[in-house]
Amino acid sequence: MNLVANNLSYKPEDQYHLNEVSFSFKEGNLYTILGRTLSGKTTLLKTIAGLLTPDSGEIKFDGKNFLKVPVWQRNVAMVYQQFINYPHLNVFENIAFPLKQRKIDQSAINEKVMDALKSVGLIGYEKRRIQELSGGQQQRVSLARSLVKNAKILLLDEPLVNLDYKLREQLREEFKSLFSKGLADETILIYSTTDPRETMELNGEVIVLDEGKVLQVGPAKEIFENPNSLKVAEISNDPPMNIIEAQILDNHIKFEGIDVEAPKHLSKLMEDGLKIGLRSSDIELNENGHEFEVELAEISGSETLLHLKRGNTKIIVSIEEVLNFKIHDKIKINFKIDKAYAFHADGKLASSPFGVLNG
Amino acid sequence: MNFNHKYFFLFPGLFVLIGILIFPIIFVVRLSLSGWNSYNPGLDYIGLENYIRLFTDDPRFWESFFRLSFLSVTTVILQYVIGFALAHMVWKDIKFKRFFRVLFLVPMMTTPVIMTVIWRTFFHESLGPVNDLLSNFGVAPKWLTDPVIAKFTVIIVEVWQWTPFMFLLLLAGLLSLPKEPFLAAAIDGASPIRKFIYVTFPLMAPISIGAIIIRLIEASKIMDTVYVLTSGGPGTSTETSSFYIFIKGLREFQMGYAASMSFTYLIIMIISLTIIAKVLTKILLKE
Fold first, then answer.
1. What distance in Å separates the CA atoms of residue A138 and residue A123, rounded to the nearest whole number?
2. Domains present along chain A, CATH in parentheses
């Protein structure tokens, strides 16, 4: 069964929430919608669910016009970034709710609810009130509620964003195993997120969305290796990819008085206004490197993010250990220049270390 | 620091409370134990004589009490159903929403006594516009002089006057409901009707209980409508407890006896409203 959309547009006021969005989703696949906040992810999911009607465009499911089907007959399930449950019902009743809307007998409901509880690890919590649960548990309840009905389309709208770090890691693992367990065989899974790491870990087909427009579609690996534009490179990397204005002359990349030999895939680019992109993890501390000044050093988890400056060039470096730096410290770094990307002046990818997109 | 002076600050409030609440209740209890009437004004002590008379020799009081129960329960149920329907209607996105919201509140803003006078004119059997219209269909109900119909006339006026209050409380409740469960319910496959039954209504249970109790307390004091519309008539067929107590106390000046009725009425109301609140909570909140 296919879910196909053509030229969906939604513009409630003066800004596009969806701008000519088209896609073709097949059952048994996981699709990740990657985009910053306000890029239209939630709007897109709501449109698929039927909570929003687009201004123009069409959605077809299994060949039928999906926009004509009212929400409650669409057989979709959705998990929201806020933990949405029914506050007046207990855990069991919450999960049973979608089943009660179809005339299923009680013993079948019990069985399915217990199965769902098991798969999200909430056995023993059936009688609890929703308000007595922690955020993570509430989100599990809404996940169980969306699993129990075996919907043809399962929408997950940034389901992990409001959870603390530990829980997020844990639930993400659980998602991965849930998704791989064959749940996805007949389901179209659509997962939206702002987090590039989540996108890569889920490893599905990625749709990069920005200001309501689809920027790039492809497998996670492809998006990571060959982002087709500066914007995609920014969105699909956290911290965003460093963009350096440089010149390539005689096989050398030159900027801010730094001169490094250009790798093969960049050496033939000669044009003006070229931008070099380098991931923050592709820069390392090195005694014999180039001097930069520390503008800010933040420790996040087990890594240190250094915001560095030299002349007009600002870059972010992430180092896989906890280090203490003071502001205005001078440090020396080296670029793994063979991992560098090049973008044309208009933002389009010119060359990537993984591809053969030269030209 | 010495915090004893905090009691000092409690005194003003306490004085008012004693003056307007506690003293009158104690005085009514003492009054009910006296034979105060227009011939013998004064707090002579006659023991429980008034209460014995009330419980053994005054069916009119109990009739008026059961009549009151019928009237107040019926009006409050009708007010709840109509009020909820109207509130639900203007809660949704409909055209002229603001206009309707104000329109539905108009009856509450009018003066009850004057409106009842107008209703009495409306329902006048030979001169009123209602029967003038109905006579085209060959009917002319005796709105105010038939013992059964008169009760429903009282109900109509009460419902008209006080549904807006219910409407206001329930609309406030609806507007304060979280939006998320409704989104979830739609996606979970609940049609609009099922959404109302399984989400809106249960979520509204706490405020419904509050609104019903407030209106029951108010409705059981019903006095002005009866006074103006029928004066308890025809006969005693629309006489309610408060109206009967008013007749005994302030028309016949049997102050002692009226006090014993008031106090008995107060006790019954406290007990029955507590039970009603408990039962409603049990049914609606499943607690």
1. 13
2. 2-228 (3.40.50.300), 242-351 (2.40.50.140)
Interface of B with A (CB under 8 A): 178, 180-181, 183-191, 194, 198-199, 202-203, 205
Instruction: Assign A351 to helix, strand or coil.
Output: strand
| Mean pLDDT of the residues in chain A | 86
Task: Write out pLDDT tens, residues A121-130.
Answer: 888 888 888 8
The CA distance from B276 to the nearest CA of chain A, in Å, is: 21
Contact A184, A149 (CB under 8 A): no
Q: Could you tell me how many residues make up chain A?
A: 359
pLDDT of residue A359: 37
DSSP-assigned letter for residue A15: S
Q: Do A86 and B183 touch (CB under 8 A)?
A: no
User: Chain A partners of B185 at a C-beta cutoff of 8 Å?
Assistant: 86, 97
Q: Report which of A228, A254, A257, A249 is spatially closest to residue A341, judged by C-alpha positions.
A: A228
Q: Kindly tell me if the per-residue pLDDT of B233 is higher than 50.
A: yes
- Closest partner residue to B186 (CB to CB) among A71, A145, A149 is A71
Contact B184 A142 (CB under 8 A): yes
Q: Is the dihedral of CA A305, A309, A312, A318 positive or negative?
A: negative
Give residue-wise pLDDT tens across range A47-95. 998 888 899 999 999 888 888 888 888 888 888 888 888 988 889 999 9
The predicted pLDDT at position B287 comes to 60
Q: How much is the pLDDT for A172?
A: 81
Query: Which is more confidently placed, A37 or B62?
Result: B62
Burial of residue A344 (number of CB atoms within 10 Å: 0-12, 13-18, 19+): middle
Report which residue type is found at B26.
Answer: I
Specify whether domain B59-285 bears CATH 1.10.150.20.
Answer: no
| Chain A residues interacting with chain B (CB cutoff of 8 angstroms) | 49-51, 71-78, 80, 82, 84-89, 97-98, 100-102, 142, 145, 149
Is ipTM strictly over 0.90?
no
Q: What is the pLDDT of residues B200-212, one digit of tens each?
A: 999 999 999 999 9
